[in-house]
């Protein structure tokens, strides 16, 4: 197999598409996760049963609510 020595053979050069949109989405999801660990929950916490052990649980109450928060953060195509 011969290596391509010209820049035309590189897909990134042929199709210039940045990753800034994906990085922005990942950053916003990280911020939503951080917001789940609020001051009130860190101070008082919530006790939950998980795997037969009572433990302190921080964050959102379930995954469905978390995904609803993500969908609310991205309302759709802006024109």
Q: In words, what does this structure look like?
A:
β1 (46-50) and β2 form a beta hairpin. This protein has one domain (18-73). It starts with 10 loop residues before the first helix and ends in a 6-residue tail after the last helix. The mean pLDDT is 68. Helices cover 48% and strands 13% of the residues. A two-stranded antiparallel ribbon has the order 1-2. The protein is α+β, with helices and mostly antiparallel strands. Residues 20-41 form the Transposase IS204/IS1001/IS1096/IS1165 DDE domain. Keywords: Plasmid. This is Transposase IS204/IS1001/IS1096/IS1165 DDE domain-containing protein.
Major pleated sheet? 2 strands, antiparallel
Arithmetic mean pLDDT: 68
- Which sequence of strands runs across the widest sheet? 1-2
Form type = elongated
Helix share of residues?
Answer: 40-55%
What fraction of residues sit in β-strands? Answer: 5-15%
Structure annotation, total helices: 4
The N- and C-terminal alpha carbons lie at a distance of: 46 Å
The number of strands is: 2
**Tally of discrete structural domains:** 1
What does the radius of gyration come to?
A: 21 Å
**Low-confidence regions:** none
- Helix/strand/pairing category: alpha+beta
The H/E string reads HHHEEH
InterPro entries: Transposase_DDE
Organism: Cupriavidus taiwanensis
Protein name: Transposase IS204/IS1001/IS1096/IS1165 DDE domain-containing protein
Keywords: Plasmid
């Amino acid at each position: 197999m011969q290596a391509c020595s010209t820049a035309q053979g590189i897909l990134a050069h042929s199709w210039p598409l940045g990753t800034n949109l994906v990085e922005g989405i990942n950053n916003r999801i990280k911020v939503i996760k951080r917001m789940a660990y609020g001051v009130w929950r860190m101070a008082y916490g919530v006790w939950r049963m998980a795997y037969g052990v009572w433990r302190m649980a921080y964050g959102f109450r379930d995954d469905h609510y978390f995904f609803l928060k993500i969908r609310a953060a991205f309302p759709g195509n802006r024109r």
